[in-house]
Write a structure and sequence with these properties.
single chain; mainly alpha
């Protein structure tokens, strides 16, 4: 039955697709071609039929009703009828068909209408790329949410007011950046930077500005340290750098900028007035003029700044000024340690109110009489001791000894004296046992030692003198007459007599000796 049925059917309806295809290729009947294009079950046969079909009504029906994407696209590729193309672009469910239709349409307002309702971002991008009207492009930006589409639109906008509006107001930062890239007015860009909240947008925008005054204005009106750093690196004018450094509260930025100031007058002002000690230190370090450094060392309220400035001064002229007239003791001290000129050192050693500074000056003085006068007159015993340690003239030392009230200082003096006559004179007049001990250690005259051994009121002095005596008669006299067991025993030992002390005598001797010392 199937064979008979096929024999009775026209060839274009045969069950065999090959026979139907052959029939299609041979026929010129528009009705048959249309029927096959609309109804044949074989997609390839329908495609071939469409290529032969010229009836636009039939093509429209197929375009609107055929379920095959390939068939609908085949029709779009075939036709030039704008009405059909717009229907395909607006109503077809498949993006491939719609794209094929859109590619063939130039009506920008119609394309904008399609874009308004199109869900597929790829198609919206294709439509947007075909539109050149600045008004329509601006409307697309207002409607569009996809950043790729919007970026494409912005890149084709040429009117600066539109670009400015986008740069200020678009919600997507990449789009704002794309708009800024196309703006040429640096004043506009500067104002955008100040109001912009996103760092990446500000960073891109500030790279477009070359006007240094605008860069300075931006730096002083934003809080983003990173952006300020980028902007400051583009500024070469030293006056503008100085303005930022002395106006901005951004410590990190100011630390960067101080190293770019070369004008020493500016550096002096910064060194004297800046509240950041690190900045003032850098400023001082960059100053080479010693007159300016002296001014800082004399006047700056910043202690570290003063010291740093003073440390850089090497001229004797300015060091003398600081040593004599600085109101700050640490500056006078630092300067004295560097000075070599004797006249100034003597002045400081005699007049400075701080004993430590006087001492530092004294250590460097070589003039004998200046040292003597300091040893004679300074109110601090430690300074007098230092001065004495620098003297060798025994006549001067003797004079100092007899006017000195401090027993410790007298000890130091007597240790430096070796003249027997002076030592004897000291022994006759000195009451302090410590000084008398030193004299006894230095004297070797038997007669004088004998007098001391027999008559000195301090048993320890008598004992020391006894231990240096060789005359047996004097030793025997001491052994028999001295009141203190230690002195008697010292005489016995010198005479070669064995000394035996009881335990009680040992204890008594220890207590008595300790008390005397």
């Amino acid at each position: 039955m199937a064979i008979l049925e096929n024999l009775l059917k026209p060839k274009w309806k045969n069950n065999n697709p090959e026979i139907r295809m052959k029939a299609l290729m041979e026929t010129k009947d528009e009705h048959i071609i249309a029927a096959m294009a609309k109804e044949d079950t074989d997609k390839e046969i329908r495609r071939v039929a469409i290529k032969k079909l010229n009836n636009y009504q039939e093509l429209e029906w197929i375009l609107l009703n055929d379920r095959s994407v390939d068939i609908r696209k085949e029709i779009v590729d075939k036709i030039d009828d704008i009405v059909l193309l717009k229907k395909a672009a607006e109503f077809d469910k498949d993006k491939t068909v719609k794209k094929a239709a859109i590619d063939k349409i130039d009506d920008e307002r119609f394309l904008f209408k399609v874009l308004e309702t199109e869900d597929n971002v790829t198609l919206r991008k294709i439509i947007a790329d075909k539109i050149t009207s600045q008004d329509l492009l601006e409307k697309i930006l207002e409607l569009e949410s996809d950043r790729v589409v919007k970026r494409s639109v912005v890149e084709r906008i040429n009117e600066e007011p539109i670009l400015i509006n986008i740069a200020k107001n678009d919600k997507i930062k990449e789009i704002r950046m794309a708009a800024i890239e196309r703006i040429s007015d640096e004043n506009v860009i500067a104002n955008i930077i100040i109001k912009e909240e996103d760092r990446s947008v500000r960073e891109m925008a500030i790279q477009k500005i070359d006007n240094e005054e605008l860069l300075t204005m931006i730096i002083l009106n934003i809080n983003d340290q990173y952006i300020k750093s980028i902007g400051s690196k583009k500024i070469k004018n030293e006056s503008l750098i100085y303005k930022i450094l002395t106006t901005s509260y951004d410590e990190s930025l100011r630390m960067e900028l101080i190293n770019r100031i070369n004008d020493e007058r500016m550096l002096v002002t910064i060194a004297k007035n800046d509240t950041n000690k690190y900045i003032t230190e850098i400023a001082v370090n960059r100053i080479q003029d010693e007159e300016m450094l002296t001014g800082i060392a004399m006047d700056s309220e910043n202690k570290n700044c003063r010291k740093q400035a003073a440390s850089k001064i090497s001229s004797e002229k300015y060091m003398k000024m600081l040593a004599k007239f600085s109101e700050y003791p640490e500056i006078r001290s630092m300067t004295v340690n560097k000075l070599l000129e004797q006249e100034v050192l003597i002045y400081v050693a005699k007049n400075d109110e701080y004993s430590g500074i006087r001492k530092s000056a004294l250590e460097k003085i070589t003039d004998k009489m200046a040292i003597f006068n300091i040893a004679k007159n300074d109110e601090y015993s430690e300074i007098r001791k230092l001065a004495i340690s620098k003297l060798t003239d025994e006549d001067l030392l003797s004079e100092l000894f007899f006017q000195e009230e401090n027993s410790d200082v007298r000890e130091i003096i007597v240790k430096k004296i070796n003249g027997p006559d002076i030592l004897k004179n000291i022994m006759k007049n000195e009451k302090y046992s410590g000084v008398r001990k030193i004299v006894v250690e230095k004297i070797n005259e038997p007669e004088f030692l004998g007098e001391i051994a027999k008559n000195d009121k301090f048993f320890i002095i008598r004992k020391m003198a006894t231990e240096k005596i060789e005359n047996p008669k004097i030793l025997e006299e001491i052994m028999e007459t001295d009141k203190h067991v230690d002195v008697r025993n010292a005489a016995k030992k010198k005479l070669g007599i064995k000394v035996r002390e009881t335990q009680d005598e040992d204890i008594l001797n220890f207590v008595y000796t300790s008390a005397m010392v």
